[in-house]
């Protein structure tokens, strides 16, 4: 962006959302944990709207996330935008707001959970919000009973709470808030979290979060510890999950024996997650001898800047991509990975065109 387009001059925590329902880019900026601004672009980022302020009455304003969904409440265009932030207070929980006019004006923030639960939340942090084509929007966040998803079906105005399971808990520490959620094209909801065994678990709902499948562990074979889960969904039952994983702690292995150690970026791909025993294809973005980081407890701290700055997405042809921010020693690196080939997660169940081998030769900088 150029300096003369009216954008906010700086951002403590920039967040970019691709609105798949109307092909907009939406940028959500946070300033000094107190002020929030939303901007959008209709031309792939060539030009941007003026920044539109959002209303907030709690401080800090942090961990912002924004999404959209088609809804009859929209008065400009056909989508409603909803954002949620955390307040840093478990009692206050998440606060959310909506825009009915394309992001120009925003309702005052409201609690992002059932009103009867006011002051009785167990986590002030939350995962990213995700909108579905059926007009529903969801937010991953632990309830006081376990990993949970919060749902709104009236355009982000009121919310309900749905605990996924009380049997597979959540690992404490950084992952105590990390319930990631996605909605597929059929309106089915998919969720993932890190449990007390430090492994990624997955469950789905086919009735807007009212009931959930028996959770399954989706970590790659040989991986002993994981962190910072994320998820994206394509057509019905086609899902990609992302996380960082470690096979061996580098401080506990002898590399002369051929043991691999350190942390890698993983994708777990399912083409029929509703099957009784779904096939899970695990892909790691780095070679075994080239770890992304060797910090011992990378899964439970923001080692190298990874943390929750990790995401998975699908491109237009249904190819899954994973992105990780790696800022070891201030290098500011971005690690991007995908499949050379594999099944499309959108459209007809076809093989994706083959891409060339990645690695240092493909670096753009």
Commentary on this structure:
The protein has 365 residues and is an all-beta fold. The protein has a single domain (15-362), classed as 6 Propeller (Neuraminidase), CATH 2.120.10. Helix content is 0%, strand content 35%. A hairpin with a 6-residue loop joins strand 22 and strand 23 (333-338). The protein is globular and about 55 Å long. The protein starts with 14 loop residues before the first strand and ends in a 27-residue tail after the last strand. The model has no long low-confidence stretch (mean pLDDT 86).
Walk me through the topology.
Elements (H helix, E strand, L loop, with lengths): L14 E5 L4 E8 L3 E7 L10 E2 L8 E9 L8 E8 L7 E6 L10 E2 L17 E3 L5 E4 L7 E5 L7 E4 L16 E4 L5 E6 L5 E6 L10 E2 L7 E9 L5 E8 L16 E8 L9 E5 L25 E5 L5 E7 L6 E6 L27
Antiparallel strand pairs: 1-2, 2-3, 3-4, 5-6, 6-7, 7-8, 9-10, 10-11, 11-12, 13-14, 14-15, 15-16, 17-18, 18-19, 19-20, 21-22, 22-23
Helix content: under 10%
CATH overall fold name: Neuraminidase
Q: Number of helical runs? A: 0
Shape category: globular
Distance between the termini: 19 Å
CATH architecture: 6 Propeller
Compact description:
The protein has 365 residues and is mainly beta. The chain is 0% helix and 35% strand.
Please tag this protein with its features.
single chain, 365 residues, mainly beta, Neuraminidase, four-stranded antiparallel beta sheet, 35% strand, globular
